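does this look right to u?? 4'-deoxy-4'-aminopyridoxal-5'-phosphate version
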Amino acid sequence: MTSNFYSPVVGRLTPYVPGEQPKISNLVKLNTNENPYPPSPRVIAAITQAAQQGLQLYPDPESTALRQAIAAQHGLAEQHVFLGNGSDEVLAHAFFAFFQQGCPLLLPDISYSFYKVYCGLYGIEAQLVPLADDLRLQVADYARADGQRVAGVVIANPNAPTGIGLPLADIEQLLQLHPHRVVLVDEAYVDFGGQSALTLIARYPNLLVVHTLSKSRSLAGLRIGYACGQAHLIDALERVKNSFNSYPLDRLAIAGGVAAFEDQAYFAQTCQAVMNSREGLILALEDLGFAVLPSQANFVFARHPAHDAAGLATDLRARGVLVRHFKQARIDQYLRISVGTPAQCDQLIQALADVLQLRG
Ligand code: PMP
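got this back:
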């Protein structure tokens, strides 16, 4: 649809398409990389309490309590943390703040597809850097000849949808390749076994690390994301945010987020449970003939040499199991499967075994 009422750019946008959030209950939902475990009971208690007092008032525009909790968690100062309504919003502000430079932004060809959407929204040219044949990122591919300007670099680590993690030494090399541009490392999945670049912030003024509470802290429904970097980068994000929405986090989100960081034991235990299930899931998929990429995330990326991935996804859905399939060159024979509880993983494997047997 288009209309004369639209600003010209609106008709040219290619919006992001989120994974299905089904209205039917009882599905085994392994398609959007949510945590299969609920948030800490302390989060629920804090939200309940926050709901009983002060909802008639605006929230703290700086989300100070949560910024302090996050800074303390990562051994950073409060002015090194920026909060947003989900990491998608944090990413959007970062693209606006740092990458509208009139030259191309470097991104892997296979990565979180929202990055290209932000480029479209803000008129940023995306230069897609192909991953190697094994879908690994090769840092040398991000080097550019002198005089060839780039707007910056954005990667997800671990990458999505592959799950493959990049060692810290490679991140450092990326930072050194483009010292005058922001290198954004999206660590949405890092708590499931990846190496975080947060430890590099003090040494690299061009590093911005983005995290979310949607995955490892089981709070996809609350919408909290954050960026960590040196104060000059955080200040730029604050300028953009305060030109857009003064109150991106509501009172319930701030209270719940603080409580999530207070319950480190629960966090560690649920992350470990997901990682344990992941290893079992990989073995079970391999037993069914799938080739599975090594994963440091809460999902696996798997392909069957003898069966079309789109067909498998449809057959699984008919059996009440949702997984994600991307109709995209190079990865259209893969399924991205979120790691569920052991019972959900068993249901997936059982359904897949049935589907494969019927297909012969
Ligand atoms: N980055 C990556 C790599 C993701 O997969 C996602 C989840 N779709 C996000 C960021 C956004 O997460 P959220 O907005 O829930 O924080």
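Residues 86-88, 112, 156, 160, 186, 188, 212, 214, 220, 225 surround 4'-deoxy-4'-aminopyridoxal-5'-phosphate (CB under 6 Å). idk if thats expected tbh
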